[in-house]
Amino acid sequence: MANTSTVAWQKRPAVPIGDDTLASIEKYWRASNYISVGQIYLLSNPLMRGEFTRDDVKHRLVGHWGTTPGLNFIYAHMSRVIADRNQSGIYIIGPGHGGPGLVAASYLEDTYTETYPEMTKDEAGLAKLFRQFSFPGGIPSHVAPETPGSIHEGGELGYSLSHAYGAAFDNPNLLVTCIIGDGEAETGPLATAWHSNKFLNPKTDGVVLPILHLNGYKIANPTILARLPEDELLSLFHGYGYNPYIFTAGFDDEDHISIHRRYAELLDIVLDEIADIKARVESVDAQEAERPLWPMIILRSPKGWTCPKEIDGKQTEGSWRSHQVPLASARDTEEHFETLRGWLESYKPNELFDENGTVRPDVVSFLPKGDLRMSANPHANGGILTKDLVLPNIKDYAVPVDVRGGSVREATRVLGSYIRDVVRNNPTNFRVFGPDETASNRLQATFEVTNKVWQADYISPRVDEHLGRGGQVVDSMLSEHQQEGWLEAYNLTGRHGLFSSYEAFIHVIDSMFNQHAKWIRTSREIEWRKPVPSMNYLLSSHVWRQDHNGFSHQDPGFIDHVLNKQHEDLIQVYLPVDGNTLLATYEYTLQTRDRINVVVAGKQPAPTYLSIDEATAHFKRGVSIWDWASTNGADKGEPDVVIATAGDVPTGEALAAVDILKTEIPEIKIRFVNVINLLKIQGIRENPDGMTNEQFDAIFTPDKPIIFAYHGYPWLIHRLTYRRSGHKNIHVRGFIEKGTTTTPFDMVLLNNLDRYHLALTVLDHLPSLSAAHLDVYEKLRNARQEAKEFTLTGDDIPVVRDWVWPEARSLSNKVDIDATVLTAGDNE
Amino acid sequence: MANTSTVAWQKRPAVPIGDDTLASIEKYWRASNYISVGQIYLLSNPLMRGEFTRDDVKHRLVGHWGTTPGLNFIYAHMSRVIADRNQSGIYIIGPGHGGPGLVAASYLEDTYTETYPEMTKDEAGLAKLFRQFSFPGGIPSHVAPETPGSIHEGGELGYSLSHAYGAAFDNPNLLVTCIIGDGEAETGPLATAWHSNKFLNPKTDGVVLPILHLNGYKIANPTILARLPEDELLSLFHGYGYNPYIFTAGFDDEDHISIHRRYAELLDIVLDEIADIKARVESVDAQEAERPLWPMIILRSPKGWTCPKEIDGKQTEGSWRSHQVPLASARDTEEHFETLRGWLESYKPNELFDENGTVRPDVVSFLPKGDLRMSANPHANGGILTKDLVLPNIKDYAVPVDVRGGSVREATRVLGSYIRDVVRNNPTNFRVFGPDETASNRLQATFEVTNKVWQADYISPRVDEHLGRGGQVVDSMLSEHQQEGWLEAYNLTGRHGLFSSYEAFIHVIDSMFNQHAKWIRTSREIEWRKPVPSMNYLLSSHVWRQDHNGFSHQDPGFIDHVLNKQHEDLIQVYLPVDGNTLLATYEYTLQTRDRINVVVAGKQPAPTYLSIDEATAHFKRGVSIWDWASTNGADKGEPDVVIATAGDVPTGEALAAVDILKTEIPEIKIRFVNVINLLKIQGIRENPDGMTNEQFDAIFTPDKPIIFAYHGYPWLIHRLTYRRSGHKNIHVRGFIEKGTTTTPFDMVLLNNLDRYHLALTVLDHLPSLSAAHLDVYEKLRNARQEAKEFTLTGDDIPVVRDWVWPEARSLSNKVDIDATVLTAGDNE
Q1: Start-to-end Cα distance in chain B
Q2: B52: confidence class by pLDDT, cuts 50, 70, 90
Q3: For residue A826, what pLDDT band results from cuts at 50, 70 and 90?
Q4: pLDDT, tens only, A583-624
Q5: Mean pLDDT on B43-57
Q6: Any A CB within 8 A of B802 CB
Q7: pLDDT score for A825
Q8: What H or E segment, with its residue span, contains residue B536?
Q9: Confidence band, pLDDT 50/70/90 cuts, at residue B337
C-alpha cells in the first residue's frame, strides 16, 4: 500500500487555490460526467469518433442520471482537499443511483483499472466500461460491492449517515464524507441519524462531514428539505447539532470556474474548522472531549446538472424529469439521439481524452495518490484491516454445574462477564451496540470496564451512571436503525461488535438486514473484497418472557426472515439454552467472518444444564442427544419417541414433560435431543454444514414420532426438515401468536408448549396406548386444566418456577435462585 | 351518542380559569395517579381501608410507572380544555407503557364502566380494576385495543405522530393530541414524522397538537432531546415547522395548583393560536390554505413524577429508575411496603373516593361529557363511523381481450383508472398513499381528479405538476414508515385507502405491520370494537422487473413475513396476472374489513389473458384450471403433469413453456392452473377459506407431478401445501436470490424460472421419457444455453418480449405494445 502515511487534520496554508487546479477540477468534473453519461447510454464508440450513430446507443437505457453530476462535483472537490492535506478519507454515497459516477471516479483515479485490468485506460477500455454498466453480465447500476471504495450501496435509502458514523468510530484520523440525498433525508432512519453526533468522541473517533445534497427532487416529486424556508432549514440542522453552510450553484449562468473557486474555498473553511476542533481536543483526555457543533454543507444544485435544460419541451435539468434516463428514446429517434450527442459533446471529450482514449494528465493532476484516493482507501475494504479479537477463555466465565438443572442463572448475564473482557481486551476493535437495552439484556458487566458513550449534556452522577464522553458501549439512543447501521459500518471497516436487541423489535431492521445480507453475499464472491467480521445479533427479552409487556413485544419471526437470505454458510441461527451454551456460542461467532449470526438467548433466571466442556462439545456438534435426559435405558436402544428441543423455554418445558412421563410411565423410552445450531437439521443439499440423512436419522430416527418443542413459529421446523424421511412424524409446538401479558407459564399454556401438552402429545403419538396410559392421559389433562385455571384466573405465582429438574430437586428444594431477584437496574 | 354536536375551534372567553376548576384538576390528577399505582401494585384492598398489608400487594409486579403521571397530567388538562370549548378530540399516547394511566382516565370518565360493566364505580369495582392489570386473564400492560379511546398501542415505539396525522386527515373538526415520549422521539420513524405537517391542509384536515414529553429518561439512559442545549432544542422544532412552547414543572417545590394554572393558561394560548389559524383559512379555498407554523408543547417534567424521590438511597423520581416498577420488593420487604403505602397515601385517597369507593363528584366535575370524553370519542372506534366506499363498476375499466395474450397493458395502470374514480367518488373517505411511487407504480390517472398534497414551498407549474395544498394522494414524502402510519390511522378512524410500494422496500415496515396485525387481530375479538376498513397493500415494481435497479431492489419476502400473522381470514395474499384480474382483486379487497390484503402486481407491459368476466370468476374461485392453456385434450382427462402458476412473470414463462412443449410433444397432457388467491391452496385446517383435500386434488391431482412457477421464495408453496397428499410431487421454482440488473429474461434464467427450465422440469418428472422426448430434452437444453449466452453476454434486447401466446401470435406479429414505451414521467 502506497502513501499510508497520512497526516491527519492539518490546516491548509492560507494561499489561494491555483487557477490551474481549478481548471483541472473543471476538466475532471466534465470527464466524470462524460463517463457517467457514457455508461448509461453508449453501447460502442465511447468517444464518438468517426461515425457515431443510433446504433452506438444501448437498446435498453437503464440507470439513473439525476443525482450523478452532483456526486461527481463533490468527489472532485473532496479529492482536491484530501490531496492538499494528505488526509485519509472515505466517501459514502447515500444516493446509490449515482453508481455511474462512482465508477467514473475510480476509473479516473486508476483504481478501477487496477482492480479490473481489462478496463484499460484507452478507448477499448472505455468501451468495455460503458458497455458493462447495468448490462447483461456486467455490473449493477448502483454503488455496489463491485465498486472500489464503497461500503454502502444506497439501494434502499436511509442508512448512509449511520454508516458514516459507524465507519468513523475508533478511526480518529479518518474523514468520512457522507452525501445525503434530499430524498433519503426524508426517511425515518436518516432523519434520526443526524443525532449520531451525540455519540462521536472528537478525540478518539474520526470525523463525519455530512453534505446534504438538495438537488430538489425525488422520483417524481420535489423534496421537503429543498422546499423549506431557509430559516427553517438552517434551524433544523442547528437543532440537530451542526453548523450548516449553504452553498448554491447551477441555477444561473455563473461560470464553472467561479463555482469551483467558491466551493473549494468553502471546503477549506470547513476542513479548517474541523482541524480546529481536532486541535482543541488533542491535549485533553478523551473523557473530557466535548461535542462541538460539527460543520456540515448543504449543497443546492439542479437535479441532473449539466444535462439538457429541456427535452421534448419540458424542463429536464433542475427537475424530477432528470431522475432516471432523460432521453429514453435516444436509440429510437433521431431527435433524442441528436440531443444526446449534443449533451455528450458539451463536455468536450477531446479535451479530456487523448488520441488513444486515455485520460489526459491535466484532468487528473490534482488527485491524491495511492491509498489517499478515496476509491482505494483500505477502510473501504475493511477485511484487509481486520484484526482477530483477543478473546478470553470462556472457562473463566463458566457456570459451575454440580447438578444438572441447578445453578440458576440469567444466561445473558453470564455472557455479559465474558463480553466485558472482550471489551477490555479490544479497546479500539470491539463495541457493543443496542437500543437502550444493554442493561435490560443483562450485559451491564461491560460497564465495569467501559462507558456508555454520551456526548449530550450531563446532569449528575446520581442519574448519569456509566455514561462517558467516550466508551465502547453505544446504546444510549433508542433506535434499532441507528444501532444496526453503526455496527454494519463498523464491521465493514474491519472491526467487531455485537448488537443486542429485544427479539420482537429486531424486525425494525428487517429491511436493513436484507440489504446488508445482499452486500455480504455479493462481497464473498468478489475476490478483492476481503472477509470482514460477522454481524452478531444477540436477541434477548424473547417471545416467551415478555412478562412486563406482553403481546406487542412477542415475535420470534426474525429467524424466519433471515433464512430467506440463506446461502452457503452466510446465515447462522443459534439457540443456546443456558449460560454455558451461550458462552460456547459467542466464543465461536466472534471468530467468524462474512456471516450473519443470529443468537437468541434468555435473560431470565434459568437452570444450567451443561458444564462448559459439555456445552462446547454440544455446540461443536450443533445437535446432540442428551442421554441424561433420555429414558431409553442404559443400552441407549431405539426409543419409542424422540423429544427434540430448540430454545431455552421449550427445552425447560420438554424436560419437565420427560420428568412427568418417566414418573408416570417408567417403561416409556424417550430420546431427548437438543438443537443449538438450528440449521444443522437441514440436509446437506440446502446447507453444506447440515446433516446427511444418515446422521439425521441416527439422532432423530427415520420412523419414530418426533415431538419438537421449538422457540419460534412452528412452520420453520417443517421447512428445515422437509426432505427428511421421518418428516411426517415431526410434530412441532412453538409460538402460535397466542399472546398474553402475565406469567411465563401462561405463555407456554396458551401456545401449547407446556409440559403437560408436550407429555400428552407424546402419548398421542405412541403406537398404542395401554389402559394404564389412558389413566395417565386423563391425569395429565386434569393437571393441565388445573394449571390453566390456576395461572389464568386464580393467582399470579409463576408456576413455572416451581418445577426443577430431578437432580437439582433431589439436592435441595430451594435451588440457587438468588439471581432471580430483579433489581431496579434491570428494567425492561 | 350524546353530545356529538361539538363546536370546533372556538376561542375561550378571556376569563381566568376558576380556582375550583384548578382544584378539581389537581384532585383528578391525584386520583388518576392513585388508580395507576394501584393497578401496578395492588392485588386487593384498593383503598387501603382497614388492615392493609403486604398480602394486598401483587406477587409479580409488572408494568411501568415512569411515563404515567405525565400522561395523567396532560389528560386532565386536555379534558378541561375540551370541555371548555366543546371541541371534539382524541388522544394518542406514544408511550404505550402508560397503560395504567389511560385505564384510569376512562374509569374516571365512566367510559370504562360503560364498556366493562363489571368494573363498577365502587370499592369492589376498583379492586377488580387493579387486579386485572397485567394479570392472568386480565388486560395488557399497554394502551391496547382493550383500552377505550385508543387507536395506538405504543408497544413498539415510533409511530404515534404518524398515527396522529393519519387520524386528522379529512377530519377538519378533530383535535388529535399526540404525546411523544422522548425515548420514542429518538426512533427514525418518529424523527421524520414531524414533517407530516407538510401534508396537512389547515382547512380540510384536523389539527395535530404534538406534546413532546421530555421526562428525561428511557429504560436506563437519559434521552437525547432532554439533554440538548435549549437553543438546539427550540431550533430543531422550529426547523421541523412548529412553534414550540416549553413548559417545565416538577423539579422544584412549586405548588401543584400553581403548576396547573400555568399549564392551563399555556393550553389556552395554544388552543387559541390553533383557533386563529383555523379562522384564517375559513374563508379561503382549500387549495389556497397554506401551512402555518403549528404550535406544539414541550413538557419537561420528572420521570415518575410524584413517586418517592429516593428508594434504597438512590434517586428515583426524576430518573430512569422510575421507568418500570420502582418498588420491586413491595410484597417482600416491609421497608418497600411502607414506602409504597406512603406513596399511595400521598394522593390522599379519602379526599378522592367516598365511603363506597366511588369517585367524589368534585374530582371529575370539569370533565367533558358523552362523546366529548376522549375515551368515548367515536373516531377512536372508527368502525362505527365507517362508510362503504362508492365503487365504480370494474367493467368500465376492463381491458378488452379479443385474443388471449393480446392487449398488452401495464396492469397497475389499468387499476389506476379505476382507482381514479374511487378517488373521485369518495372525496373525504379514500386516499392513496405511497413513498413517491404513485406514478412509478402507474397510478397517475388519479392525478386527473385530485392532487398530490403538498404544503411545502412551490416553485412553478413547470416542475410542480399535480401538487396541491390539498389532495387525496399522499405520496410526496419518501418514507414507507410515514405512509404506513398515516394509512393505519386513516383506517383505524374508519376511512379507506391503499398503500402502493415497491415490493422489496415494503420490508421497511415489517415491524409496523406486525404491530398493526396484532392490533387488528385483537380488535376482532373485542365485541365493542367495530370492524374498520382493511389495510390494502399494492406491491408493484416487483422482484422480477427491477430492470433499472437490480439486486438491492429484489425481495419478494413480505408475503412470507405477513403469513406469520395468519389467523382466520386476517391475512390475504393475491397475485393477479394482468389488468383484469387486478381489477377484480381490488374491487373485492376495497369492500373488506379488518383484514390485511397484500396484492402483488406488475407495472410493466404484459399480455392480458382473461376477460373481465373470466377474471371475476377466477378471482371468486381463487384457483382455476385454465383449460385454454392446458393440453390435456377435449375430454379434459387426467393430465400427465400439472403446471401451476402464481404471479404475472411466472405465469408468462409457464405459458411459454406449454407453448414449447405442445409444439415439440403434441401428445403430452398438461393441465394449466393459476392461483390468484395464494392462501386458497392451504387446507381448511390452516385456513377456513382454504380448499378441502378433495377440492385440491380435483385441481392439482393427488399423484401427478406438479411444476409450480411461483412469484416469491419457493419454500412458501411447500409450506402452504404441506399436508396435501400430492405434496411430494410439487416442484417449485421461484426467486432464489440470484439477482441481476439487466434484463427481465436474465432474472428468470438465473432463478430457473424461465420457459426452457420449466419445460425441462416437466420432462424431468414425466414417468418415462421416450427417445423422441430425449431429443426434445437436448433441444431445450441447447435453446436455454443459447438464450443464456445471448442474454447474459451478447446483447441487451429483452428476449422476453419476443414471445407471445399463440392466439395473439396468430393475429399479428406485432401485438399492441404501444403501452410499452416508457415515458419520462414513469420513472422508477
Answers
A1: 48
A2: very high
A3: very low
A4: 999 999 999 999 999 999 999 999 999 999 999 999 999 999
A5: 96
A6: no
A7: 35
A8: strand B535-540
A9: very high
Q: Is A561 on the interface with B (CB under 8 A)?
A: yes
Q: What angle do CA A390, A391, A392 make, to 5 degrees?
A: 125
Q: Does A7 touch chain B (CB under 8 A)?
A: no
C-alpha dist (Å) from residue A250 to A213, A258, B330: 13, 11, 68
Sequence-ordered list of residues with C-beta below 8 angstroms from that of A354, at least 6 positions apart, any chain: A360
Label residue B633 left, alpha or beta by phi (over 0 means left) and psi (-120 to 50 means alpha). left
Q: Using an 8 Å Cβ cutoff, are B202 and B470 in contact?
A: no
B136 and A551 within 8 Å at the Cβ level: the answer is no
Name, in order, each residue with C-beta under 8 angstroms of B6's C-beta and a sequence gap of 6 or more. Answer: B86, B87, B88, B173, B371, B372
Grid cell locating A735: 409460538
**Chain B touched by A583 (CB under 8 Å):** no
Where b means 16+ CB within 10 Å and e means fewer, A305-335 reads bbbbeebeeebbbbbbbbbbbbbbbbbeeee
Q: What is the CA radius of gyration of chain B?
A: 31
If you average pLDDT over residues B369-394, what whole number do you get? 98
Interface check A292 vs B, CB under 8 A: no
Contacts of B10 (CB under 8 A, 6+ apart): B85, B86, B87, B275
What would the pLDDT profile of A380-428 be if each residue is shown by its tens digit? 999 999 999 999 999 999 999 989 998 899 999 999 999 999 999 999 9
Average pLDDT, chain B: 93
Residues 78-97 of A with CB under 8 A from B: 96
| Separation of alpha carbons B6 and B169, rounded Å | 18
SS3 B632: coil
pLDDT in tens, B662-702: 999 998 999 999 999 999 999 998 899 999 999 999 999 99
Nearest Cα residue to A183 out of A100, A98, A102, A76:
A98
- Residue A265's nearest CA partner among A68, A12, A72 is A12
Cα separation, B564 vs A592, in Å, equals 30
Average pLDDT over residues B402-423: 95
B498/B535 Cα distance (integer angstroms)? 7
Element (H, E) at A670: strand A670-675
Nearest partner of A340 among A117, A45, A41, judged by Cα: A41
β-pair type (A467-468, B467-468): unpaired
Cell numbers representing residue A270 in the block: 470547513
- Taking a C-beta distance cutoff of 8 angstroms, is the pair A75, A101 a contact? yes
Regarding pTM above 0.90, the answer is: yes
Does A290 lie at the interface with B, CB-CB under 8 angstroms? no
Mark yes or no for CB contact B548/A63 under 8 Å: yes
> What letter represents residue A707's amino acid?
I
Cβ atoms of A562 and A521 closer than 8 Å: no
C-alpha dihedral, B47 to B48 to B51 to B56, nearest 10°: 100
Q: Residue A801 corresponds to which amino acid?
A: R
DSSP letter (8 states) at residue A64? -
Q: Which triple of cell numbers denotes residue A129? A: 466500461
In this structure, are residues B43 and B360 in contact, taking their beta carbons and an 8 Å threshold? no
What pLDDT is recorded for position A819?
A: 35
Interface list for A 210-239 with B (CB within 8 A):
217-224, 227-229, 231-239
Side chain identity at A278, as an amino acid letter? K
Q: How far is A15 from chain B (nearest CA, A)?
A: 35
State whether residue A729 sits within 8 Å of chain B by CB: no
Nearest CA in chain B to A60: B796
Choose from A221, A451, A521 for mutation: most chain B CBs within 10 A: A221
Task: Report the C-alpha gap between A345 and A339 in whole angstroms.
Answer: 10
CB within 8 Å: B141 and A746: no
